[in-house]
Amino acid sequence: MTDQSQAGAQQNAKDVPELPKPEMHIVDMSKAEVDFAIEVAKKGIISLFKNERRSFCEVAQFIKKEFDKTFQGAWHVFVGKHFGAWVTYETHKLVYFHIGQAGFMIYKHG
């Protein structure tokens, strides 16, 4: 990596704020799935800061694709600052949490 590209990478890292610790609201999911959910949610939020994605809808689509690929089945994802939900889900396949002001609900049904 050249000095110039290294400096650019360091500047991009500075542009992305440190994300707060997730605030868990509902956890009915294995630890591995919860850890994965938090990891991909953080990647999604960071992608907004980097302008790689433009909306919470695009972040939800990214998370759904990652869950479908990794855990298979019909996963559903809500991402946003304000939403309500009443869902039917498979046993042990739901997590709801916030990272900062962004809420994430991920569940499997079908």
From TrEMBL:
<dbReference type="GO" id="GO:0005874">
    <property type="term" value="C:microtubule"/>
</dbReference>
<dbReference type="GO" id="GO:0045505">
    <property type="term" value="F:dynein intermediate chain binding"/>
</dbReference>
<dbReference type="InterPro" id="IPR037177">
    <property type="entry name" value="DLC_sf"/>
</dbReference>
<dbReference type="GO" id="GO:0005868">
    <property type="term" value="C:cytoplasmic dynein complex"/>
</dbReference>
<dbReference type="Pfam" id="PF01221">
    <property type="entry name" value="Dynein_light"/>
</dbReference>
<keyword id="KW-0243">Dynein</keyword>
<feature type="region of interest" description="Disordered">
    <location>
        <begin position="1"/>
        <end position="21"/>
    </location>
</feature>
<keyword id="KW-0963">Cytoplasm</keyword>
<keyword id="KW-0505">Motor protein</keyword>
<dbReference type="GO" id="GO:0007017">
    <property type="term" value="P:microtubule-based process"/>
</dbReference>
<feature type="compositionally biased region" description="Polar residues">
    <location>
        <begin position="1"/>
        <end position="13"/>
    </location>
</feature>
<protein>
    <recommendedName>
        <fullName>Dynein light chain</fullName>
    </recommendedName>
</protein>
<dbReference type="InterPro" id="IPR001372">
    <property type="entry name" value="Dynein_light_chain_typ-1/2"/>
</dbReference>
<keyword id="KW-0493">Microtubule</keyword>
<comment type="similarity">
    <text>Belongs to the dynein light chain family.</text>
</comment>
<keyword id="KW-0206">Cytoskeleton</keyword>
